Amino acid sequence: MDASVLVKTIVWWGLGLGTVFGFIANKTNFCTMGAVSDVVNMGHWGRMRAWLLAIAVAMIGTNLLVYLGYLDLSKTIYTGNSFPWLAYIAGGLCFGVGMTLASGCGNKTLVRIGGGNLRSVVVFIFMGFAALVTLRGILGAFRVKFLLAPAVSIQLDHGQTLSAFLSGIGGLSPETLQLAIACVIGLAILIFVFKDKKSRQSTDNNLAGLIIGLIVVGGWFVTGHLGFGENPDTLEMTYLGTNSHLAESMSFIAPTAYTLEYWAYWTDISTIVTFGVATIFGVGIGSFLYAMITKSFRWEAFSSPQDMFYHIIGATLMGFGGVTAMGCTIGQGITGVSTLSLGSFLALISIVIGSSITMKIQYAIISREN
After folding, report:
1. Residues of the chain under the 70 pLDDT cut
2. Domain count, the chain
3. Phi–psi pair at 29, nearest 5 degrees
4. Residue 196 to residues 58, 70, 84: CA-CA distances in angstroms?
């Protein structure tokens, strides 16, 4: 297939997957920050179990693709030999704090935009700009010099997936071992999710977890298999239609930056719509469609200048943290974790800790004021 046609195919798939994601996320109120909040503040595990279900489905499905030869995990941003532990921790903590102050992560921001939330439009702009300057601007210089420096990174002799650390066990091939580990962890998560009667009966949570997990798997298949082709300029085999030129799946921070960049350099023919950019549009469109179908579309604005201030600070922290940690609650929390990357697990834990601590502080402040 011609490279330009292949890129368009990947982009259309990204738009489609993003649209389904946004529709389902709006319908089921799938929200990773909400999941953390429910557990920390009320002890309710419903939405957290939906998130965990998505992780389990994505983990098993992704590694089944690897086993069948449809995906090479070494060609992703998550599994390299460099282990920048400080970036994972610092970025994850910043993102966790930011998504709490901004009332939702990158995914929820896009879903709310589709539902008419003007606060989320402001969050989107500040989050995207912060992500862009963390990728290529002044914050990027800080990130590279202090958070990705050799002194705070561990250079491994192999990739950072769990199978790479456990290679040789039982004489299994790397692909078989990777799938076995994914199935064991995934099954343990599924047992935890469905041992609760309410979880078994929650149609929305189960629908969200299943569909979003499968969307992540679909993203890996589209970019990692369908998108693998010959670069017409270099004549080398590469991954077409992605910003990283590697296999990608659902993630919403760096793609937000690339979306703003695309708008800013619209007339530059070297700037194109990619899989990630298409998913950004798709999530908003899918959420909008659900809101219009159910007549739940509502214009919403900030309640006060202070509310706006907190959202702007939160958005900025999300943009910086998401790029630094190489993903958000979806990009690392589901997509990255599906590769069994140790960095993804560390980033996810840091995000949850950052969000939980911020929620506790907010609750203490509110209690003291009352």
Report:
1. 1
2. 1
3. 60, 40
4. 21, 34, 37
